[in-house]
Amino acid sequence: MKLNYFKLSFAQMMFHLLFTKKLGISCFLLCLSMPLFAQKLSLSPKENFNFRVDDFSVIGAYQQLTAVYRKHNDIPEIIFYTKDFKKEKTVALDFLPERATDIRLLSSANGILLVYLVKKEKRKNLMLAKLNADFTFTEPQIIDSNPVANFRDDIAYTMEVSEDKSKFLFYTQYIVESNWVLKAIVVNEALQIQYQVNQLLDNIDFFISDKACITNNGEIFILTTDRNKIRAGVDELKILACSNQKEFSINNIALNKHTLSDLQMIADNTNHLAIACGYYAEARYSAPRGIFVTQFDITQQTPTMSHFIPLAMQVTSSKTDLRDMKIRHISLRKDGGIEFCAEKTYQTTRTISSINPLMSSSMVPMVENSRTVQEFNYDEVVIFNVKPEGAMAWTQTFLKAQTTSDDEGKFSSFAMLQHPLGKVYLFNDFSSKATRLMACYISAKGELNMKEIQTSDEVDDWNIMNRLGIQVSAGEIVIPCITKNYLCFLKISF
User: pTM of the prediction?
Assistant: First the structure.
């Protein structure tokens, strides 16, 4: 049938032309995929900064603005940027006492919370304040207070935030009359204490870890182990669960004589689960063999079956295999499964020798100088996608080789952004003379695509710290950047 192109709309005409050509389908699919690869880069104005003594962080979104934290010359402040990443305003935190420690700024569902610790009159106080709509802070209030003498080795509070950012968990442990006390406090967005638990743990044979989660309803789950450092391998695992707002129940997890390491925890609000995962090994000092996943049914208040999923690493050539693979991020599948990514990272020490020639006769020996260099290595990243029943749905690997010296790897590793079409992993490529900013796209089905993000000369003048990037909206991530004596922030919109 012959078509009358004058009676067709432009969209109809293009659709017909595409699908009547041999390459029509390929071109059409390419056009559909283009939005995934389009990025807009926005660089904030530079700020004075001393990298050795100052501090900074990305907070998140607030009233259609992006908020970051900077402390320069002992003056802490919050800087707000517009959508185009122009500096809108600055809020000084000049009310903070000089002795404030553990300063943290949290992006809540409808605001920004300020958390800090301060010692006063031989007591350790946990303080909270909230940013008002007029960009002033509420009067800081004491959420918890304990005698300093109760804390051994100055134990701090562990903090967790619910998925919807409406509930905040603070918990700590201290000794009273030779007995351990576990104190957990749940606070809502209005800085009101929703409930508090003070539980005496006498004659316990486990250590309370810093791995925990809190649900959107305020239910608390904390992992405990038989060893103080869970990276070294643990033979026993318990989940402390508090759903009645009164006390924790202690739930043993069957490990079937396995040893666990690199434990993580996350709350699945959709399926009413608390999920713990990590690596498992056959013995404490043997290399990990695979992935461990266990679930706690919140409705039934009981642990479900644990899964031990063996893995065979196909990329790494190191004998340690999973031992060097550190879990960086965990996220949830819609059906109750779990996806987490692990990065191969390790540290090496080298001695570099150099000969300093002397302007003298050959009878005088040359002087040899040597110095020790700490090298930080961040290599391939592996993503594991596990079904609810414990079967592996898919695995994917993207390769990178990042090695830096004496910088603690500050410019290595990666940032992750959750995109509607999958996940985006951003990292620096040091393999060429000029550092390149790379993006690895991995779909929900495990399909991988890698490309270089085109940057401007202005962006190339900065050192991008991807590992400190924070996602601020559905398709935007903000990453700190530094250069000599200056700090700025890079926003990438997908």
Answer: 0.86
